[in-house]
Write a structure and sequence with these properties.
242 residues; globular; mainly beta; 15 strands; 15-stranded mixed β-sheet; 1 helix
């Protein structure tokens, strides 16, 4: 596979224009924060709950992005440990745990950069796969997108290499418009970004980033192929950098 993260691409059939990819020009700082969201789950029954998202700088200089959400009999947690230096996100470890009723899914991805490979562990079974430079995990890609939106807010689309499900996948995102999002903190203009999964996918994901909040995420909507829906809406945001 070509190194997507460092190569300009063209998608004339989709009329997307140029894709903005990782570059040394994207050197904005990541601000540590804690945020609270309301969560809504439609998993056959309608559930409401809350979610927390935080970016913390550890004593050794690594960063950890954590998302956790609960709603009655459902819960979800994601954790990404990574370095951020000279505009480059370098993930080290990713974990995802989802529990709905009596079903649990547990996934871990450990990055071995000297050997350019990752170890995937899902439901207790482990296997290795090769990766290319600048590969991201499924959660740190949101931070990469946030940084590139800051640096290139007028671009039509973005693409990244992501270690996902034992495969090296290209995550593509499309600038899908702007909306006014009402939150307890006020009303914010937000850039609506859609995950481009291709025309043959029934899954849909939208993420809203608010420039006035340093491009923080104010809303996420996930629509599954089976009709199940998951949504986060920002309620509180605290910066931890003074």
């Amino acid at each position: 596979m070509a190194n997507i993260s460092r190569t300009w691409l063209s998608l004339p059939s989709l009329c997307l224009g140029l894709l903005v990819l990782w570059s040394n020009n994207s050197v904005a700082q990541l601000r540590p924060f804690k945020a609270t969201y309301s969560s809504q789950w439609d998993v056959g029954i309608s559930l409401s709950g809350k979610a927390k998202r935080s970016l913390i700088i550890n004593n050794d200089g690594t960063l950890r992005l954590t998302t956790s959400a609960t709603a009655m009999m459902a819960s979800l947690s994601e954790s990404s440990l990574f370095n951020y230096q000279d505009g480059l996100i370098t993930p080290h470890h990713y974990q995802y745990i989802r529990k709905i009723l009596n079903k649990t899914r547990d996934v871990e991805v450990a990055f071995d950069w000297p050997n350019k490979q990752v170890t995937n562990t899902a439901q207790g079974k482990a296997w290795k796969m090769a990766i290319v430079p600048h590969t991201l995990d499924k959660q740190s890609v949101q931070l990469r997108l946030q940084l590139d939106l800051k640096a290139h807010p007028k671009e039509a689309a973005y693409a990244y290499d992501v270690a996902d499900g034992g495969l090296l996948k290209t995550y593509r995102f499309i600038a899908d418009g702007e909306d006014q999002i009402e939150t307890p903190l006020g009303e914010y203009n937000a850039i609506r970004i859609k995950r481009d999964r291709g025309t043959d996918s029934d899954r849909q994901t939208w993420i809203w980033f608010a420039p006035a909040l340093d491009y923080s995420i104010v809303r996420i909507v996930q629509q599954e192929a089976d009709g199940k829906r998951y949504q986060l809406n920002l309620k509180q945001l605290t910066w931890l950098d003074g």
